[in-house]
């Protein structure tokens, strides 16, 4: 697999496509914003004029689009699936609900192409550095064929199951924990702010204790900033925790902590902070508890 | 400070007192169970006949009792405070509500003794290994006088504030995160079990991703066991998250995630699992969602 089509060259997709180029893959990319494909072309890739143009002749087509609906549009309405050679692989790497992934996989298989459910974790930093975690589900043969491509994106590549939808499930569970951990860090800092302890010392203590989480260490310091740079936006978690709750609904699993965390991000978005860094869910707790902003 | 009184020689207190002996401190210990003080005596300490006997002549009196009510009884009803020399330090190291700690500190100061609010994190493993995290609040002079004693207990000794109650607050916030992280791990595993992904692979993926927490890595594998060894019991979090909610109530801080997590531990206790390892809060999610036990 040397010839890769790539659809969705946003803040995640473009650096991922560049990592393919750096490993010698031929990449033909498409994005709704023409300047993104032009940027890829400047780095040695090819700018496709349409989704179908990106897919034409590819061994593997990466979909790094916004959601499952966009993946469906690209594949079926925009003709990418028809343009893809028989037996080629569709790698859906966006975060999508497990049920939607299963449905797409069935339609792709029915059209004689292979499907790889392969969402990622690690954000823009991981996409740029080639250090994403990749949670791939597909029959082993498909996974092994695609593995060299996946290793260009991430250093933690897992084959989590044979059935498409299982990758999306692992990613969903991943996002459940990420979202709850960010909201919990905000809840903890808001309590500490209300009682009046030094939040810098608090983060130092908690970052080295059993209370620690990856998100506490990463987002905690940004919660103490008034307008931190946007690493990932509040509205991403409004979407992703929505997917978590949809997965719970479909599977009949009650998720009380995730539902509360979702409401906290939703409230942040409701107050106009949807585009702010997701650490700013702390503002929901400040608003809730009558605290000034920022907490220090 | 070489002469230490020690009240409360349970699963935490006894190994802590032993670490004092190993560093050459003289330790006179008391516990309601006489066999605990006898065990300390066998290791080179002295067995006190009463709380007041443990405090008599001590430079510093450690209270590693069950809760604030027991600390109050020991100090005031049982005569330990009166037995303690003027200017000696009372180090309250149990997990207590910040408001109760402040009140005790005031009464100790009024009696001419010094007060150190110094709760710990790290469990029995940290107590035995001398690797506890210690969150100490007191005027700097008191903290510095007691610091060599604290360093016998832990390698992460923080002076988090000048005012007693601030240590208890940091510990409270610590427990908020610990409790929410354990419950979140259980919620995540229950969703994954319901959808049907391999839980061992799931923990491997999540343990190395942004979804990771100290508790996920520590308690997650024990959630997959049917009857894991009890490292810390469900009822400890029923108590500690109760303290978290009390602190939130006193400070007027709404804590929606902590309140949900508390309910999950409470439900585990309600079903007769209060003495089980706290990882078994996962059984609440299994019961809630009609899943067999264990989740695999």
Protein architecture, described:
The structure is a homodimer of 296-residue chains. Chain A is α/β, with parallel strands linked by helices and 296 residues long. Chain A has two domains: 3-162, NAD(P)-binding Rossmann-like Domain (Rossmann fold), CATH 3.40.50; 169-288, N-(1-d-carboxylethyl)-l-norvaline Dehydrogenase, domain 2. Chain A is built from 14 helices and nine strands. In chain A, the strands form two sheets. Chain A has a six-stranded parallel beta sheet with strand order 3-2-1-4-5-6, with helices on both faces. A three-stranded mixed beta sheet of chain A has the order 7-8-9. In chain A, strand 2, helix 2 (34-42) and strand 3 form a beta-alpha-beta unit. The relative contact order of chain A is 0.10. Chains A and B meet through strand 9, helix 9, helix 10, helix 11 and helix 12 of A and strand 9, helix 9, helix 10, helix 11 and helix 12 of B.
Write the layout of secondary structure elements.
The structure is a homodimer of 296-residue chains.
Chain A: E1 3-7, H1 13-22, E2 26-30, H2 34-42, E3 46-47, H3 51-55, E4 60-63, H4 68-77, H5 80-83, E5 89-92, H6 98-110, E6 114-117, E7 120-121, H7 123-129, E8 133-137, H8 140-153, E9 156-161, H9 166-195, H10 199-207, H11 214-223, H12 234-251, H13 256-273, H14 282-288
Parallel strand pairs in A: 1-2, 1-4, 2-3, 4-5, 5-6, 8-9
Antiparallel strand pairs in A: 7-8
Helix pairs in contact in A: 1-7, 9-11, 9-12, 9-13, 9-14, 10-11, 12-13, 13-14
